[in-house]
User: Fold this.
Amino acid sequence: MLVAGNLNRNKLFQHHPMCKKFIALKNTLRHSDNDDDLVEEIIEIIKRENIDVLLPSSFDCIRLVSYNRDKFKLHCDVMPTPDLATILELDDKYKFYLFCKKNNIPHPPSLLLEKVEDLNPDDSIPLNFPVILKPVLGSGEEGLEIFKSKSDMDNYFKTKPDKASAALPALVQELFDGEDIDFNGFAVNGEIKAWSVMRTIFYNGKNPFRLTDYIEYDEVKKLGMEIVKNSNFSGPLNIDMRISKEDGRVYLIEVNPRFWARGHTSLMDGVNYVDVGIRTASDDTYCVTSRKSGKQWVSSLGPLLSSAFIYWDKTCWRYLKNLSKEQIEYVLFTKYFLTTAKIKQMIFR
Assistant:
């Protein structure tokens, strides 16, 4: 595997045992139509290294490759990616909310807050509290705030105006108690080539951590495939959903039109999404099936080890005892994450 990327963003990755060669890019990603220098640099690397397949991994890289796809295709195969309009519609949390409403897909009631002045302390909002505020283009937990009441929300905007303004425009969404569950997939022109239902269980000890398993859940699968079909999606995507504790319904939360943080755990379920991306670059008929084994894996070993050895948590010792050699290899080294195809691939990140 050859990896090309920004040096600062890949300080650790460049030393990964599975990274055979790392090339630090001279040009930076500018999120504009004027990335010609970076595109030409990548093309030069492709020609010099005789690359067969280009695989963009991060959200920004997928955007760049999608916009310049025709240029890259002149020199090598390219992983399927969504078009720019689809990326912008699904990644923007408010636009995705409107997409769900248009396609009759269940989504928590939400509204758009564009500027602080839109929130009048004397007005009510047409949502039931508690609510969560999240930037429409935010990632991870960046900018997230939870408000139990309208007065809590008003007080936040009054006492922290700079922080509040920095989070806008934001989606304000009803928050409900439930179980987190994800649909992971890889698609080509609206047709699923690989999928899995990923469930998250939180262990709330002194050092909390997440457990992951892959299960059969028809409603999650159905909704995930509706998103893919209705958006004519291509490439990797992770869809956050939540099962309501009150009524048992599955609600869509947001879409990540890219590879996701726990993608390596899908290996235990028999789905290698990186491999799917590489293979579908030249063969759009390639498919792979989820095992849906339900086997529970610890997503990250660090918190588990500290809970067991620092806090002497007996439950964590049982988790450690049940860890297989296979799981340790996957989590520590992301073993077998690459394709077995006899081709030379380049990951752009």
